[in-house]
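Subject — a protein and its fold
Fields — amino acid sequence, structure tokens
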Amino acid sequence: MTPGQSDHFPLALPTLMTQASPASFTTPSGSLSCDLPKVPPLRINPSWRIPTPSQCMTWWDTYAMLDNIRDHSLAVTHVATTITRMTLEKAPNLPASCNLLETVTAAALLHDLAKTYCIRHGGNHAQVGAAWVVALTGNPAIGHAVFHHVFWPGRIDVRNHFIPLVVAYGDKRVRHNEIVSLEDRMEDLMLRYGTSTSRRKMILRAHDQIITIEQQLEQLTGVPLHAHSFDSRRLVQ
């Protein structure tokens, strides 16, 4: 938030992003249940506005995004868009294939838009960020991905929910601004946020989810993403 800017930002979430808190699921790590709800795919409207990367970065300035969060967002965008390009080569007819690369790019660049504000003032950065993004862009697909980049509220289905799940995967492959393995990223999250038993369980549940997402993305692209460095095409050390 820039100096002197009002704290009164748009906070009303669209109804399609009904919250399902990770704390409401009790599945232990290693046995993610298939009994979670099946989330219907979001119907993509080709007329929805998609901001350019330049516009997204202007909003970084508007909301005074910290430099380290900008660097993180760029790395997440690199991972998410690399996988999207791989996917379009192998599976060009995804349900959300309309403007797919542009939408993923914007969603990844904006996924932590509210992180700085929530660090300073409190709140859930995914929820607040999704509200801001929908208000700024009028694009529910981008807001949907921002809202769900921390935890997905239902069964994993990357074909029908590619945009939010590839952004979530990208986020879990980046520690600060460094592309790392899922295990290294989980250890980082545990160190920084695993301050209670409930939080540690939440992180483990999210880790189970992201492994499933990785496996499905690997099937979709035919690429062993778990061993992909995304910057040099060497194995992650």
